[in-house]
Amino acid sequence: MVKKAVRRLGVLSLGLGTFAGAALIGAPASNAGETCHPGWFCLYEKANFEGKLQTVSNPAEGTCVSTNMTQEDGTVRPARSFYNGASMSQVYFPNGDCSGKSFTFSIDAGANLPDAARSFRLFTCESGKVCFWEGDSFNGTKATLEWSNVCTGIGFGANSAWNVSSMGVTTYAGSYCLGANAVSDLPANTQPYSLPRSVNRFKVM
Question: Signal peptide location in the record (predicted)?
Fold first, then answer.
């Protein structure tokens, strides 16, 4: 078992997910739940869901959404608040293409955005499952697996993961789930992680 779990802030390379085009809507928003329809991911020009609204309708798994939007004065600047009605989880990045040295996992359905937020990756992992992605920013080939007491192959080299199961698991790189091959522990019901190196197997801690 690896004693130290990977940290939330992971080193990331260029995201390979879909980069979303966005529609612009000029209506002001005092209540995000009223203006951001179910299935939409919404960005607002101003804090507290005010100003021009920019939407991505029914985004696909792995979609990358830039926070840049054309403001009411015609300039392009990052949005100041967001609302996620797309039934997906999100992490945000300091660059506009879902790349950068670190990311932050946000559990809020909607909130004001920090200055560092320049793009969002939208993705899912079913409750009770352990999910792995080939890319290190929750992009590329995805595997959704049950936790297991036996050494289980992922099917590819995974570089990001999310354990939404009730059991902590350890990830491994190699042909066997042995201590020398252990890479990272993923605690039960934890946040998404960018792994320090590629893994291809896992089992319960």
Answer: 1-22
